[in-house]
Each structure stands twice: as structure tokens, then as C-alpha cells.
Amino acid sequence: MMRAVRPPSRLSAYLRRKASPIWEKIFVHPFVKELYSGTLPLEKFKYYVIQDYNYLVVMMKCLALAASKADFEFGKLALELAYEDATIEMRNYEELIKELGLSMDEVIRAEPSPTAYAYSNFLLTTCSLGTPLDCLVAILPCFWSYLEIGKRNEHLLRSNSNPLYRRWCSAYVSKEYEELVNELIQAVDLQDFTNLRRLEELFITGSRYEYMFWDAAYRMEKWPV
């Protein structure tokens, strides 16, 4: 059996450094900057909300898969997150969907964009076939990058005149959200592992898909005819 190894620093910090070039591009993406400044066209935000709602359904399934294979502490955390996705997060999105003049039927029946389809399959495959740590590392860029996006762009909210965008963005600069992300980061750092390269690939792939998800929403990506 291979002996568990650790990189020179905490696993989470190591992975974050490796993905830094991708994250820097996320922080300055036009969708992000326009959303936080309040200038994003509403149709692009509607597109994002539809795709993200269905992504959250996939995330809930991934967390449940991870929990089914994890030890008690990590399994408990994964189930708590899945429950929050299925209740609080979904309720918030249902209210947002109404506010945007969309129907739940319209959102649920919407076809996933090519990027959303690929990202969802990456997560489902990783969480179905991989270890609980594989799953956590693959989904971590989603949770963690939203926190850093908020921190990098919080100053833009002061002049954001769009109450809908301001309220949505504010959730990711809250103390509660930061505590949640820190809990996930700590969970990663508590796990032993043997294949650092595999974890690095998963984290970078997840980060790339995060960039692509924002970019797809900005372009309102569609499937080729």
C-alpha cells in the first residue's frame, strides 16, 4: 500500500495556488464585473439563473453520492450541504425565478447549455466513481471561487444601483457563506491521500469549468443547430 503523502503546504492552499491563473481570469470576467457593478443585461442574468438552478440539482446529487461513501464527519458535512441545497438554496432560487418573471416549469425544462452539460457530467462521474475526497476537491472550486469573487468585487456593490444584483451578490460576501467555505476547506485538509496529481487535475478541471460557466452565461451559449 502506498503511504499517504502531503504536499509542502496544506492541500487546499497547494491546489489554490495551482489554479490561480484560472481564478484570476474569473475575477475579471465581464459577467462577474458587470453583475457586481449592476450593469449586466438582465437577459444574461436570467440565462445564468436557469442554468445555475439545474446545476444545483446536480450538486445536491453529487454531495449525496460523496456522503454515501464517506466517514461520519465528512458524510455529515456533505449531507448538510445537500440538505441546504435542497431547501434554503432552492427556496431562494424559486423566489428569484419568480422575481425574474420566469416559471419553475420553464426553468426545469430548459436544456442544459453545452458547458453546463459537460460540467455536470464531470462532477457526477467524479462523485460516482471517485473517493469522497475526489468529490470534495472537484466541487470545491465552485464554493470557494464564489467567496473570492465576492471579496475581490465587493467594492463594486457600493455603486451598484440594481437591487436584485446587489442582493444576490451580497450572499457571497456574508459571514455565513465564508464560514461554510472554510468548513469545506478544512474538510479537504483533514483527509489523507496518495495521488496528489489526481487531486490537482480535479481541482483545476473544476476551476476551468467555473470559468467556462460564467463565460457561457455571458455569451448565452447555445448548442449548434
In short:
Helices cover 77% and strands 0% of the residues. The protein is mostly helical and 225 residues long.
Features:
225 residues, Heme Oxygenase, Chain A, 11 helices, disordered N terminus, mainly alpha
Strand content: under 5%
Shape: globular
Q: Would you count the extended β strands for me?
A: 0
Structural class: mainly alpha
Quaternary:
single chain
CATH architectural label: Up-down Bundle
CATH class call = Mainly Alpha
Number of helices: 11
Order of helices and strands: HHHHHHHHHHH
Q: What is the CA-CA span between the terminal residues? A: 51 Å
| CATH-level-4 superfamily name | Heme oxygenase-like
Q: Assign the CATH topology.
A: Heme Oxygenase, Chain A
Helix content: over 70%
Mean of pLDDT = 91
Tell me what you see in this structure.
It is built from 11 helices and no strands. By secondary structure, the chain is mainly alpha-helical. It has a single domain (16-218), classed as Heme Oxygenase, Chain A (Up-down Bundle).
Write the layout of secondary structure elements.
Blueprint: H1 11-18, H2 20-27, H3 30-37, H4 42-69, H5 72-99, H6 104-108, H7 114-129, H8 132-157, H9 163-170, H10 175-189, H11 196-219
